[in-house]
Amino acid sequence: MHRRTVLKSAAALGLVGSLGSFGLSSAFAAGKIRPGGKAALIVVDVQNCFLDGGTLAVKGGNEVIPVINALAPAFENIVVTQDWHTAGHASFASTYSGKKPFETTKLNYGTQVLWPDHCVQGTEDAALGKDLKVPTAQLIIRKGFHKEMDSYSAFEEADHKTATGLAGYLKARGIKTVFVTGLATDFCVAWTAMDARKAGFEAYVIEDATRGIDLNGSLAAAWKQMTAKGVKRIQSGDIQVG
After folding, report:
1. What CATH number is attached to the domain comprising 204?
2. Considering only CA atoms, which of 208, 211, 212, 210 is closest in space to residue 237?
3. Which residues form the signal peptide (predicted)?
4. For residue 185, which of 158, 152, 153, 213 has the smallest C-alpha distance?
5. What is the pLDDT of residues 171-196, one digit of tens each?
6. d(CA 150, CA 165)
7. Angle formed by the axes of helices 190-198 and 218-228, to 10°?
8. Rounded-to-integer distance, Cα 65 and Cα 67, Å
9. Total domain count, the chain
């Protein structure tokens, strides 16, 4: 199985923290969800390319950062993802003669939305947003780095066959529940949440900690699909912090 998981030390990426201890309790306080040692926060693609001024800026994308920062202290376990494309990637409209961004093409794994060039490996555009503060993050998953195949989900490539290793990583640490945040709601967030369910995790999407692209109704469609898969839709105020 080809893995695309990139494990980096927190220090190497400017993230402070360690694996620490993983407790086994999860409780509710005052009607709010209190994440315990069996829960993980997944922060999806909060990168310059998707923020204001980026190559594929998501409207309101910067607004998720303070929400995620405020949530982070509630979680012992945090995973961060990065879109990490090669130049000339199969998902870029510029790769194909006569194609424009947001059109589609057929690839061997199905229909592919074509995007503006974005999040190219090693560029400032692909870097995490400088204001993102997730001090207990232990793992970064870099995805979409295979030139011939896109990857929205933190768990699987777009072929729905090639696993990233994230499910195994979480299960080895006793994680049962994931809370998904980041960009964009209707693509990488949705696919990550649905694949979390597929892998056997309870999955929540924290709506006000996400923003969508909403391409031809894709946002409403994504929420419908997530609900059908058992993904739960909540707000940051539903989480007990502190």
Report:
1. 3.40.50.850
2. 208
3. 1-29
4. 213
5. 999 999 999 999 999 999 999 999 99
6. 17
7. 10
8. 5
9. 1
Catalytically active residues, by annotation: 45, 143, 188
In a domain, 42, yes or no: yes
- Among 225, 222, 193, 191, smallest CA distance to 206 is for 193
Query: CA 52, CA 59: separation in Å to the nearest integer?
Result: 8
Q: What is the DSSP string of 109-134?
A: TEEEE-B-S--BTTSGGGSBPTT---
Report whether 199 contacts 155 (CB < 8 A): yes
Cα–Cα distance list, 187 to 112, 151, 220, 239 (Å): 12, 10, 11, 24
Helix (H) or strand (E) run with residue 222 in it: helix 218-228
Residue 14 lies in a domain: no
Q: Using one digit for the tens of pLDDT, what is the confidence trace for 101-130? A: 999 999 999 999 999 999 999 999 999 999
172 φ, ψ to 5°?
-65, -25
Structure tokens at 88: 């000339």
Total-model pTM: 0.86
Polymer length of the chain: 242
| Residue 25 within any structural domain of the chain | no
For residue 3, being part of any structural domain is answered with: no
Give the range of the structural domain holding residue 126, as residue numbers without chain letter.
33-86+118-238
